[in-house]
Amino acid sequence: MEPSPVSKLWEQFAQLEDPRVARARRHELLDIIIIAVCGVICGADSWVDIEEFGKAKLDWFGSFLDLPNGIPSHDTFGRVFARLNPEGFQRCFLAWAEALQEGTQGKLVALDGKTLRRSHDQARGKSALHLLSAWASENHLVLGQRKVEGHSNEITAIPALLDLLALEGCTVTIDAMGTQKEIARQVKERGADYVLALKGNQGRLYQEVAESFQEGRKAEFAGIAHDRQETVNGGHGRVEVRRYWTIFDPEYLSYLDPKGKWAGLRSIGMVEAERHEGEKRTVETRYYLSSLAGNAREFGHAVRGHWDIENGLHWVLDVAFREDESRVRTGYAQENLATLRRLALTLLRREQNARVGVKAKRLKAGWSEDYLLTVLTSKPTTS
Question: What pLDDT score does 187 carry?
Fold first, then answer.
């Protein structure tokens, strides 16, 4: 039976290898995946939830899925996703995400990690799952993810995730963990630009960049090729002023990188974030390396886009999907369920007709099959 409401998903996941032996396959693998995706979209946060959702929507699913033995049990969902190869599942997810997009040309792609706090299992010596995600900031789509064993291993996970992405013409933003010469080179070799954060523990480089801006500001940047932008935002008794500076003077860049080891380095950046909340005033300063030409507006856009991964992805996964509360731990189940959440979030983000948050969209999709169908078939956003 042709599953028209989920044809795009069907196309990308059809080649996924079934982990079960043939004699144990009472339910089609794609039926299991489609029901799970729809269940997570509609508010299901566990295998029991997904089973109950499937039973409630049996007639609707039966109109386009085979369902040779009805709706699978929660044990079946748990066993299948515990054994399903997570890398193969993520490759299908990545192919599906790329099929949804109109390309990343000129877009921002932010890489950042998130730990699922309750996914650890002390009794079995299993640490909490840490996932590195790639986030298309402008259209709020998850482009892919990679499992890492801990924060320190993001250095090896970042190149592996970059290899999976179509990066031609985009700008990649990464926090200080990924500020490595080889990562900068890899981004440039993929035809993209980078904005890489610096931190104090990076020693001499951080200090020299900070001193470059300190000296430049004292001299009011006289004779120094630079640019500046300032933004002011406020609401609910809070005012935030962000000041962006870039230095793209060849003399400064040659001093910072005399041997040209930072591939494509064209500018350094500084952000001064000043926040007023009542009588309280705080100021935070950050520094960056960048292959962008040095336009402060473009630099500021990239920095703000990277911050969006916290609010647009990590915060939503915790609040709307309760990800940090999940105790699924068996086999690969926690990793695959995390992929299901990101797949569902991507679909919900793409649907722009309902002017409500992700949590409310999940409820609405559960109430209305017509709206669920809209979520499954909506076209990608462009902003």
Answer: 97
